[in-house]
Amino acid sequence: MKQILLIFTVLMSLSADPGADFYALSFKTIRGETYSFEQLRGKKVLIVNTASNCGYTPQFKELEALHKEYGPGLVILGFPSNDFMGQDPGSNEAIQEFCEINYGVTFQMMEKSSVKSKKNRNEVYQWLTDKTKNGWNSKGPAWNFSKYLVDEQGKLIGHWPSRVKPNDPAILQFLKK
Question: What is the pTM of this model?
Answer without folding.
Answer: 0.91
